[in-house]
Amino acid sequence: MATPSRTEIISLFRSLLRSARQFPDYNIREYTKRRTIDAFRDSKTLSDPSSIAAAFSDGQSQLQIGYVAWTKIQVVVNDVLIKCASYIATVIDCRGARDLSRRKPFTEKPP
Amino acid sequence: MASKIISATIRRSLSPRTLPHIRPLSTAAAVTAAAEPYDETAGISMKGVKISGRPLYLDMQATSPVDPRVLDAMLPYFVSRYGNPHSRTHLYGWESDEAVEAARAQVANLINASPKEIVFTSGATECNNISVKGVMHFYKEKKKHVITTQTEHKCVLDSCRHLQQEGFDVTYLPVKSDGLIDLNELRSSIRTNTGLVSVMAVNNEIGVIQPMEEIGQICKEFNIPFHTDAAQALGKIPIDVNKWNVSLMSLSGHKVYGPKGVGALYMRRRPRIRVEPQMNGGGQERGIRSGTVPTPLVVGMGAACELAMKEMEYDEKRVTELKDRLLNGIRAKLDGVVVNGSTESRYAGNLNLSFAYVEGESLLMGLKEVAVSSGSACTSASLEPSYVLRALGVDEDMAHTSIRFGIGRFTTEEEIDKAVELTVNQVEKLREMSPLYEMVKEGIDIKSIQWSQH
Fold first, then answer.
1. Which residue in the list B127, B155, B160, B378 is annotated as catalytic?
2. Total domains, chain B
3. What is the pLDDT of chain B when averaged over all its residues?
4. Are residues B109 and B213 in the same domain?
5. B15 within some domain
6. Closest to A92 measured CA to CA, from B18, B300, B207, B5
7. Local confidence band at B61 (pLDDT 50, 70, 90 cut-offs)
8. Is B119 within 8 Å of B285 (Cβ atoms)?
9. Which of B152, B153, B169, B385 has the lowest CB atom count within 10 Å?
10. Residues of chain B numbered 7-46 and touching chain A (CB < 8 Å)
11. Would you report the helix, strand and coil content of chain A in percent, each value rounded to 5?
12. pLDDT per residue over B255-272, tens digit each?
């Protein structure tokens, strides 16, 4: 891609910091903020346009992953647990009816 | 009807208000630094201890948090691409297999090996078992002797004890007071029927880095397979299997900010080292370790290794700075602080300190707001001091008061400062109560006292 402009770089920096703030865990939040600032500071001295473009696209891909994982988890876990709940409920229903008819008194030893 | 009630209760308890893992986690440091929107004002009470928030995590040698980038790489393989990598007949299997092979290449890159030399296992303990017992059982006709050190991980020592019961000879090399082995002793204990030398790269309790290249040279000279447990070293110090001349290397996923339950074993192909498999079954992983390869965990370990390669320099610089801050902060306020293990050949993120004239159990009980460890997690269940410190020649009383601070990628300056403050407070409080410390302050030499028998 073409060399990113100054405004594009600054807007990427701001979006990365904004996404870092959303992490619920203190350690990960602080690390993401610090790492973004340090990474941008270290690549300030890059002059070769292809390396600038590479660093920029690297930063963009970091924006895609990272905080998205945490928000994804909440949606996925919610979804999975709700599905599990209805599945477990149906299993208990069927099992209960079958076992009650078949169960022998507790005096007998299980096979 | 009962099912309807059950599903209704579950649905109610799942509403976003009450799902526990959405609530932001507040640590003790964050409570002091900034006001959190969701304050757990009641605090946490567990096992009879009440603390104001979650403790600061300074125990990176026990395990490390999973990096969000690693978690992101793993999620698709839990949610949608959940195939078994050994299913050859459909897309689910093919894409899983592709992911496993990509992860294998990522792990191999970090240690400068070829992907064909990596076998995925369930962790470094399994790798150590395969290496020690598997190699010796394979070559048991000719080779009857194993050389290892006194400071190895419990799984290696236990495997060696198992071999001893089967009739093999094991030499446990002593270490010097700085934790490093003596190369001349290693050389002199090599026999013609030595089958394996096992020395861990970075010790999990004291953090010393053994002279791997020199040991590799000695093993090459005598043509003996060299096994190393590099679980703590992976991603922290540069590893090169050719420079170190290792034949077998155990790697662990959860020490490099990856998931728990996965590890990798490096096995050299030229010259080929053969092992007897400890897990028999369908011949997966080239017959060395049968069993379905856990795709999401393996993908996580691969992503963690790739990240470690990119971030090694940055992390090392930062961890060294934080270690200096911690050590100088404690030394500025306290005397009688001893660093266990060599200070030169050491990984900075592992700081094992002993505080003189302080009782260890009470120090740990007072440091409940900081998650640290005394000794390693494997041995902390028993009351005796760690065998590693005993091997270093540390006095019993100093060995009891040792604390291991583990600093990692995610540790912040505020956490270090808070840990310094809490440690100094606790040690000063205990020393104030200690009659031994009073005697030392008056100038009496503790060692010269004749304690009377009652």
1. B378
2. 3
3. 88
4. yes
5. yes
6. B5
7. very high
8. yes
9. B169
10. 7, 10-11, 14, 16, 19, 21-27, 29-30
11. 80, 0, 20
12. 999 999 999 999 999 999
